[in-house]
Design brief:
Oligomer: single chain
Distance between the termini: 43 Å
Low-confidence stretches: 15-33
Strand order of the largest sheet: 1-2-6-3-7-8-9-12-11-10
Length: 484
């Protein structure tokens, strides 16, 4: 295989499914899928207020940190009296690159609670998806109204949401060069943002900092963690210490070479037949060859043809299965969990309250400059960073049992390839049953700092499907309780 040209592989893959599955016979070719459904532009005509930039206020000698916090306080009855702070953090003055954050102090013991950062994937998705649909203190119902979430992570954690990389959600840059081109850029910008947040808020007595996220954030999480780790090893943190304690990654894309193997998985689920399996195997081999040759753009185009379907003919997955939803193999179509969120976030009242003014909200839109800028990064691996981090910090890799896009067997495949001190034990470590209040929640395998968790009856967005179980998992992890 290694002697074949990537372009030849791509042609073989294209021919395999283009001729085998006639366009006229498939009603699904006209629409594409996205890691998160894009939101439509919305303007309700009300005053959005002015954007708040925190960074210059931090260096203003006439303002105390308490003054700045008061300025950043989110006001508005629509948020049900849940205390929070929001605004922009400038991470690159030359390009006017700014990351939007929204911070919710812990409901219980905020002075000592762990600080937890949540990052959405995409690339290009807003972390406010996680806030309102997964683990934040407020959830948006289909009627467009907010209600308090029972199992929010903010109950016992100081919880931060950042739209990252620059260009995601409300985050923005004035220059094309301000967009991240790789995970080093992502980690650098997030690190700068967190240094400012640690300067602004009273977290000195907190029990440490944890980085969490899902999907493509399987790259962002280790990118920030590795940046913090190396900075603190070299004492290059501008006199500011971020007490990194560990990470949690849900259904994360970390190592495409060893993860993106869909054919066997879909075949075993009964979603494709032998012909479909052959088509997947051809395309997967093509993608692997491109990665090994460092042709990351070619590898992405093949991955896109396999599952994402941003190209005109759609994806092999969609054309063979009829699915236009790859978050849960029990659901063929979008369950509309994102409905109303785009309009709510873009309303004048929300914009004014969270201090974003009239800045455009980008979330997996047609431009998706974030994704385009990261094209070379998409199929690259963060496994070397994870191998180094596992020597020092606990890392929980949790997976929803029903996911397709980053299915559990794919994550297991890449975890078995990692080289870290307990790698040999991980391969033979016993798998334990995990229960929450007597309910069978899933299964846990642990080897040293690596914690591998399967969450039952959950898809790609585990906190959305099983909020109670994942809250218990995160609580045990961050509060360093006994094994599950």
């Amino acid at each position: 295989m290694k002697y074949f040209n990537c372009e030849i592989f791509a042609i073989i893959a294209a021919v395999t499914f283009a001729f085998a599955y006639d366009e006229k016979e498939s009603p699904y070719r006209s629409s594409f899928m996205h890691p998160y459904p894009p939101f439509s532009y919305y303007d309700d005509g009300t005053d959005p207020g002015e954007a708040l930039f925190i960074t210059p206020l931090l260096s203003n000698d006439s303002l105390t940190k308490a003054d700045v916090r008061n300025i950043a306080l989110v006001k508005g009855k629509q948020f049900l009296n849940v205390k929070s702070f929001a605004g922009y953090l400038t991470v690159n003055e030359a390009y006017n690159s700014n990351l939007f954050f929204w911070y919710f102090p812990a409901q219980e013991s905020p002075e000592t609670a762990p600080v937890v950062l949540w990052l959405q994937g995409g690339p290009g998705a807003s972390s406010l998806i996680g806030l309102f649909l997964e683990n934040g203190p407020l959830k948006l119902h289909s009627d467009g109204k907010l209600k308090k979430r029972k199992y929010s992570w903010s109950k016992t954690h100081n919880l931060i949401f950042i739209d990252s990389p620059v260009g995601s959600g409300f985050s923005f840059t004035d220059k094309a060069a301000g967009f991240a081109r790789n995970e080093q850029d992502v980690g650098r910008d997030l690190h700068e943002a967190m240094l400012q947040l640690y300067e602004l808020f009273d977290w000195q007595n907190s029990s440490g900092f944890w980085i969490t996220g899902e999907s493509y954030a399987g790259k962002y999480v280790p990118a920030l963690a590795y940046r913090i780790h190396k900075a603190q090893q070299s004492y290059d943190f501008q006199g500011k210490h971020i007490p990194l304690k560990g990470m949690a990654i849900g259904n994360g894309l970390c190592d495409p070479l060893h993860q993106l193997k869909y054919g066997d998985y879909l075949y075993q689920l009964g979603l494709i037949d032998d012909n479909g399996l052959a088509a997947f195997h051809v395309a997967e081999a093509a993608g692997e060859e491109c990665i090994r040759k460092k042709d990351m753009v070619g590898a992405f185009e093949i991955f896109d043809s396999l599952i994402l379907g941003d190209l005109p003919k759609g994806s092999i997955f969609k054309n063979l299965t009829g699915f236009d939803w790859f978050y849960n193999y029990l659901q063929a179509h979008d369950d509309n969990c994102f409905i109303n969120l785009g309009n709510f976030l873009q309303s004048g009242a929300t914009r004014q309250a969270i201090h974003v003014g009239n800045h455009t909200f980008h979330d997996m839109d047609k431009e998706n400059k974030v994704k385009n800028s990261l094209m070379e990064d998409y199929m690259d691996s963060v496994a070397p960073w994870l191998e180094e981090l596992l020597k020092h910090y606990p890392i929980c890799m949790y997976s929803g049992q029903l996911d397709v896009i980053i299915a559990y067997p794919m994550t297991r495949n890449f975890l078995k390839m990692l080289k870290f001190p307990d790698a040999d034990y991980y391969k033979i470590a016993p798998r334990k049953i995990w229960r929450v209040d007597g309910e069978l929640a899933g299964y846990v395998k642990q080897a040293g700092n690596l914690i591998d968790v399967l969450v039952r009856n959950a898809g790609h967005m585990v906190p959305y499907d099983q909020p109670k179980w994942i809250y218990e998992l995160i609580y045990h992890l961050t509060h360093q309780k006994h094994a599950l």
